[in-house]
């Protein structure tokens, strides 16, 4: 297959590029600062010579957008919105102009689109879209709006010959340095991997191999379109999530943190507490209904596998996003 990955230089793009290239597929990455032979320059906003790469491609996997690993200032939130919506819009324009449009367009979205809740899991059919919850910071609603506008930009694209799938992805766990698992493991190893603000908030996640397998599955399933949750079927409360991670590494205790302590830590890491405090209880209803089999459906086994890779020195330095 020929795959084009706009914004493919971040963690998820690196995982997919590595896996599909190793499997013998042709992968072209669109980036603001190309550094390799298979990378083409684009700005994520306007059509250019890069659009020719989409002509005749089997699939486009658009991952472009400003990283969420930042302080959620008004300026950064606006950039998150603009980078996602504009890139989705221009990818749609390139597909519409292609003489041989791709068969499928997989558009990254996020599990953050669902409501902050504890009572029941969110699948694609019955899940509650967030934004109207009470007792949450106002900017959490803006994060939901970003996700909605992101998906809308894809849905409104005039690409009748290309199937469209919105990937509502949970946190992707891989041994890559600089990725979310690397950060969480470092906290656990330092003895800081305890419950945050009580730890009742749910963590949704997906192992990197299941991410790759699910993307390949969705490329091959012509009967699946629209939103699809990319998450393991067993989300769990943050306190249990970190307990299992500590157990996998062999750390006996993890200091708890209050919400204000988490805020200080997020400030020091130039990140935001929404990533820690929002309850993301997301399950992959459509993937399971379609017969997809997860290699790592439960977090204890996934954590143990990732720890084995890290201990074996297989943690790979993830290329930080050089572009949208």
UniProtKB/TrEMBL annotation:
Pfam families: DUF1731, Epimerase. Gene3D superfamilies: NAD(P)-binding Rossmann-like Domain. Residues 270-306 form the DUF1731 domain. Residues 4-221 form the NAD-dependent epimerase/dehydratase domain. InterPro entries: DUF1731, Epimerase_deHydtase, NAD(P)-bd_dom_sf, SDR39U1. Belongs to the NAD(P)-dependent epimerase/dehydratase family. SDR39U1 subfamily. This is NAD-dependent epimerase/dehydratase. It comes from Actinomadura verrucosospora.
